Amino acid sequence: MRRRPSTAPPGEYAALTGRTVVRVDELEALGLARSTIAHRCRAGGPWRRLLPAVVMLHARAPDRDDRRRAALLHAGPGAVLTGTDALQLHGMTRMPHPSGPVHVLVPAGRRRSGHGHVLVERTERLPLPAAGRWPLAPVERAVLDFARRSTSRAEVRAAIAEVVQRGRCPVERLCAELAAGSGRGAHVARAALAEIADGVRSAAEADARELLARAGLPPAAWNVALRDGCGRFLAVADGWFDGVALAWEIDSVEYHLSPADYARTVARRSAMSTAGIVVVQTLPSALRERPGEVLDELRRGLVAAARRPRPPIRADRAVP
């Protein structure tokens, strides 16, 4: 039986569905004919077609949330957001702003392909979504799905380091997820995880680690807890040369999570200096723009530290 053409105003359907992005079959179930839907999605019309069989019940430019909703509706029940969209919704900030296709995971047996603004990945390892407003892949899956498709080692470093630094996922769980997933594009993530397992917790520290290796200087330990001769905790050093008790501080306010974090950085540097530790400070930007000057300053610091008696400082293993 043919449906009777609807004369209801376009905005009425958003009120009926409770959403502004819907599937065409939902509108048909409310009595709206496909021809009417197509007419309302015409150029200059009151609605917009975002994906096949998915429409937006207004004509403004779709925002990222509209794209996410459309991608999930297109992918079907049980679809899960991953990659940069999931990371952003998890509260992460040190990855590229989501702008390309919305990356969604679906069961391996589902016949659904990507289309324009959505990347559909079929997987045998469909994760249970984290509880919340959106169906999100766990943070370890999301960051590694991003890493496998990124060509920027710096961006991958920053994203993985943030996940660990914020305490959202331990290195061991990231390594297990990397081993369980596809090997395609995993080399960048594997290198970043190796750095983090060595104690590196920021992109700046990773740059510093590489600079040391290229210069042939002794390797530093990263993010170690320092204690004085009485066992009292002093600080956590970004980089640590134990033989001469030199701390290399390379984080600035650019890499800290809040002004309060930066204030604590100033306090810990004061505590180290008072205990007799030689402290060399380097801005992250200098590592990239003036590496020769950074190495000269570090060498002078190591020579000066070696000339004075080593204070009784104990360094513990890298902290999470």
Question: How would you describe what is shown here?
Answer:
The chain has 320 residues and is of the alpha+beta class. A hairpin with a 2-residue loop joins strand 2 (48-51) and strand 3 (54-56). The termini are far apart. Residues 1-5 and 253-257 have low confidence and may be disordered. The strands form 3 sheets. The protein has a 5-stranded mixed β-sheet with strand order 10-9-8-7-11. A 3-stranded antiparallel β-sheet has the order 1-3-2. A 3-stranded mixed β-sheet has the order 4-5-6. The protein has 13 helices and 11 strands.
Features:
320 residues, alpha+beta, 5-stranded mixed beta sheet, 3-stranded antiparallel beta sheet, 11 strands, 17% strand, disordered N terminus
Mean pLDDT: 87
Distance between the termini: 65 Å
Strand content: 15-25%
Which structural class matches the secondary elements? alpha+beta
Give the SSE string: HEHHEEHEHEEHHHHHEEEHEHHE
* Overall 3D form: elongated
How many beta strands in the DSSP annotation? 11
Q: Count of helices?
A: 13
Major beta sheet summary: 5 strands, mixed
What is the CA-atom radius of gyration, in angstroms?
A: 26 Å
Strand order within the widest beta sheet: 10-9-8-7-11
**Low-confidence region ranges:** 1-5, 253-257
